[in-house]
Design a protein that fits this description.
Layout lengths: L10 E5 L2 E8 L4 E5 L15 H5 L3 E5 L16 H14 L5 E6 L1 H12 L4 E7 L22 H7 L3 H11 L4 H13 L1 H6 L13 E6 L5 H9 L3 E6 L4 H14 L11
Parallel strand pairs: 3-4, 3-5, 5-6, 6-7, 7-8
Antiparallel strand pairs: 1-2, 2-4
Helix pairs in contact: 2-3, 4-5
Length: 265
C-alpha cells in the first residue's frame, strides 16, 4: 500500500527522560533512518523516501536530541547521549534486530551504536560518513549558525506544506543556541578523535554499504569502506545523489547474501 509521505504523522516517545519525535511507516523488517547534521535535515528529510521503501521495510525515522521536534537538552550534548538515545529508541520500539540507513552525522551515531550493540544490527547503509573526518565540514560553522530561509526549504522539500513545517521546527525557541552548542561539541578535535569510527570499524563484521556523492569531501566514506571487514563502496556523480544513494541502499539491504568483493586500495 502506498504511503502518502506528507501525511505520515509525528509520533513521540520518551527515552532516558528525553522526548524523541519519530515517523513510522511501512511493513516488513525494521529499518531505522537517522538524519544528517544540518539544522534543516531532521527526520523529515526521509519523508520523500517513505513511499519507496515502505513496501519492503517497517520504517522508523527519528529526530536525534537537538534536532526537529525532539527535546533540546538543557545539560548539553555528547556522543554517549546520542548513542543512548538510539539504543533507548530501538528498545522502546521492540526491535530485537534491525537494519540502519543513516546520512552524514547520523551515520556517525549509527556506527557508534553498532560498535556498542553489534548483535542488534544486521546491515548498515552509511551515506556520507563523517565519523573519520578530522574536522567538521566548512558548511557547518559553529559560531555562525544561520537558519535557512523558507525559499531554501521550498527547494529542498517536495511540498509547500513540508517546507513550512520544517521552517517552523527550525525556528523553535532555543534552536540557534542548541545547534550552536552541539556544533561546538563535535568540533572539538579531541572529542572527534575519541569518538572516531576509525578505532571501531575493524571490529564491525556486519555488511556495510559506504556510499556518497562525488563532492570532493568523501574521505570518511572511502576510509569506512577500507576499514570495515565486509564493506562495499559507492561514489555517485549523480545530479540527484540522494535518491540514487537511497535506492542503492535499499537494494543492498534486500540482497539475499552479501559477500566480500575486495578492498578499496
Amino acid at each position: 500500500m502506498a504511503i502518502e509521505h506528507a501525511l505520515v504523522p509525528d509520533q513521540y516517545v520518551t527515552v532516558n527522560g528525553t522526548k524523541l519525535r519519530y515517523l513510522e511507516a511501512g511493513e516488513g523488517p525494521p529499518l531505522l533512518l537517522i538524519h544528517g547534521l544540518s539544522v534543516h535535515e531532521p527526520a523529515d528529510q526521509w519523508r520523500a523516501y517513505l513511499d519507496e521503501m515502505g513496501g519492503s521495510f517497517h520504517l522508523y525515522a527519528i529526530d536525534l536530541p537537538g534536532w526537529g521536534l525532539s527535546d533540546m537538552p538543557l545539560d548539553g550534548y555528547s556522543f554517549p547521549m546520542w548513542v543512548d538515545a538510539v539504543a533507548g529508541f530501538v528498545d522502546a520500539m521492540g526491535m530485537e534486530t534491525l537494519d540502519i540507513m543513516a546520512y552524514s552525522f547520523g551515520s556517525w551515531i549509527a556506527g557508534l551504536y553498532i560498535a556498542e550493540h553489534p548483535e542488534r544490527v544486521r546491515r548498515f547503509v552509511s551515506l556520507h560518513n563523517p565519523g573519520l573526518n578530522k574536522v567538521v565540514s566548512q558548511y557547518h560553522p559553529a559560531d555562525d549558525v544561520e537558519m535557512p530561509s523558507l525559499d531554501r526549504l521550498r527547494r529542498a522539500y517536495a511540498s509547500e506544506e513540508l517546507a513550512q513545517k520544517v521552517f517552523t521546527e527550525m525556528n523553535r525557541d532555543g534552536r540557534v543556541e542548541a545547534h550552536t552548542a552541539l556544533l561546538h561539541y563535535i568540533s572539538d578535535p579531541q572529542i572527534r578523535e575519541e569518538w572516531s569510527l576509525r578505532h571501531r570499524l575493524a571490529a564491525m563484521p556486519l555488511p556495510i554499504l559506504s556510499a556518497d556523492r562525488d563532492t570532493g569531501f568523501v574521505d570518511g566514506t572511502v576510509e569506512c569502506a577500507k576499514l570495515a571487514p565486509l564493506a562495499r563502496i559507492l561514489i555517485t556523480p549523480s545530479q540527484r545523489p540522494m535518491p540514487e544513494l537511497v535506492a542503492a541502499g535499499k537494494a543492498f539491504l534486500l540482497e539475499p547474501e552479501i559477500t566480500p568483493i575486495g578492498k578499496v586500495r
